[in-house]
Design brief:
Order of helices and strands: HHEEHHHEEEEEHEEHHHEEHHHHHHHHH
Strand content: 5-15%
Shape: globular
Distance between the termini: 31 Å
Largest sheet: 5 strands, antiparallel
Structural class: alpha+beta
Strand order of the largest sheet: 2-8-9-7-6
Number of strands: 11
Radius of gyration: 23 Å
């Protein structure tokens, strides 16, 4: 590797060095014919990475893990997890590698992580590879989530490998470069706890405190403060998902970060019609991770984190359990507060209005949306126009016009702030039919639909002429939508 190019990148190996029990040194598979498909220039700038370097052969080599600084040792991270409620004691990065950490412009570390870089010792029989469609899905949806202001891992690049990968059909391969504040998960703590080494759990907790919640270090019980902080972060995160109609699809404990960032955009989707029972994962037959269940599942996952932390919370187990239960009880209150505040903002309610006034209006609207299978994103954006005295765009979306008109009259009596509504209600989201169309085109070699969709969803609140097709739901012939994990 060119020494000049090498000097453009400084990656550290904190996790690999500090947790040899949870990291296996490994190398990415060689990429036969790499082609850079998409590069996130704004994110690269935030990370101090030169775009000219990243688009060079050495840069693409870094983005695939094939050309690395001589002193850099990528690792596959170990973690456990409850998958659809069933405990798996040894999961880990089966097709992913942590290259190392890099300093962001905010002065904090970010993980640089590959996905689809080849089979690791955690491969569990898989080939360790990934294909173009799912990797571009993660790029697209994670950047849309970032633009919506929702905490998320981000995507730096997707590189085509030139390798054909066998799935249901033969598809072109790809590697995603993902960036996160860290990849420490609830499943990481489950893995550490399962070893029986309380010292390892303690070190992991101290790492999480240092990396994500430094204020907890000064608390009387830092590990309890850590759990409180993670609980608050997840309550806020899941409320934000719910407010934009996002369904994660695979809320296993290995897909819940300690940082409170959204991770793993496999079987995920944004709802069109409002349906609390919406399920988009092809493998979630029982609806465990349906839209309406996401807060409940988050609380369940946090209980698994609490179990892993018990030895740190107090030397007496019963006391530790009591502390954990008390902390976990905060989740529902925090989630409800975040949801209510977010919904009040979506409806333009001004500060000072009592919950007894706003709450019934919110509930009545959601009933109207569910009964009428109303497009969730469109109705809230249209209500901004209704707040300005233009109710017709919203009226056209709701079948029960009489009930809706009565609701609007009561709502407008509270003088909703239309400008404030437009700042939180997006015009553009990654509509499922548009995502599938863009990914199909990209798989066939045409990236233009992807770039056009990216342009829309990364400026989601700014209504622009010429983008009308990105602001409406799927046509009826699109049918029932299901997504797949891409493995």
């Amino acid at each position: 590797m060119d020494a000049v190019s090498l000097s453009a990148v400084t990656l550290s190996g904190h996790f690999a060095r500090d947790f040899p029990e949870m990291a296996i040194a490994w190398r990415a598979e060689e990429v036969p014919d790499p082609e850079l498909l998409v590069i996130n220039e704004p994110l690269a700038a935030e990370l101090g990475l030169d775009t000219d370097f990243l688009t060079s052969s050495d840069g693409v080599g870094l983005l695939t893990g094939c050309r690395l600084p001589v002193d850099l040792t990528p690792v596959a991270q170990a973690y456990a997890g409850h998958q659809f409620g069933w405990y798996a004691p040894r999961l880990g990065d089966g097709r992913a590698l942590l290259l190392g950490e890099i300093t962001h412009s905010d002065g904090k570390l970010r993980d640089v992580h590959l996905k689809g870089s080849g089979r690791t010792p955690f491969g569990r029989g898989g080939d360790g590879l990934a294909v173009v469609g799912p990797m571009l899905r993660e790029y697209l949806v994670s950047e849309a989530m970032h633009a919506l202001g929702i905490p998320t891992t981000r995507s730096l690049a997707v590189v085509g490998t030139g390798r054909l990968v066998q799935r249901e059909t033969v598809l072109p391969g790809a590697v995603l470069t993902r960036v996160a504040t860290s990849h420490v998960r609830v499943g990481s703590f489950q893995y550490a706890a399962a070893t029986g080494d309380t010292g390892l759990v303690r070190r992991l907790a101290e790492y999480a405190i240092s990396r994500h919640y430094p204020a907890a270090a000064a608390a009387e019980n830092p590990y309890l403060a850590l759990f409180h902080a993670v609980t608050a972060a997840q309550a806020s995160l899941v409320a934000r998902w719910m407010l934009v109609g996002f369904v994660h699809g695979v809320m296993n404990t290995d897909n819940m970060t300690i940082s409170g960032e959204t991770i793993d955009y496999g079987p995920c989707a944004f709802r069109d019609a409002f349906d609390p029972a919406a399920v988009y994962s092809s493998v979630d037959d029982g609806g465990r991770y349906a839209y309406r269940n996401q807060p409940v599942v988050a609380e369940w996952n946090l209980a698994r984190l609490a179990e892993s932390l018990l030895p740190l919370l107090h030397e007496d187990q019963e006391t530790a359990i009591g502390l954990a239960v008390e902390a976990l009880d905060d989740f529902r209150r925090q989630y409800s507060a975040a949801w209510a505040a977010g919904m009040n903002a979506k409806l333009g309610f001004r500060r000072g209005l009592e919950d007894a006034v706003t709450g019934p209006l919110v509930e009545e609207l959601l009933v109207l949306l569910q009964e009428g299978q109303v497009d969730y994103t469109s109705i809230f954006r249209s209500l901004g126009k209704a707040a300005r005295g233009e109710p017709e765009p919203a009226r056209q979306l709701v079948p029960d016009v009489t009930a809706f008109d009565a609701w609007v009259e009561r709502w407008r009596a509270l003088s909703p702030d239309a400008d404030a509504m437009d700042r939180v209600n997006p015009v553009y989201i990654p509509r499922n039919h548009l995502v599938e169309g863009a990914l199909a085109a990209a798989t066939g070699g045409d990236l233009d639909p992807l770039f056009r969709l990216l342009d829309a969803v990364t400026r989601p609140f700014e209504e622009r002429p010429g983008l009308e097709r990105y602001a409406v739901g799927a046509p009826e012939e699109f049918g029932t939508y299901r997504t797949f994990c891409g493995t």
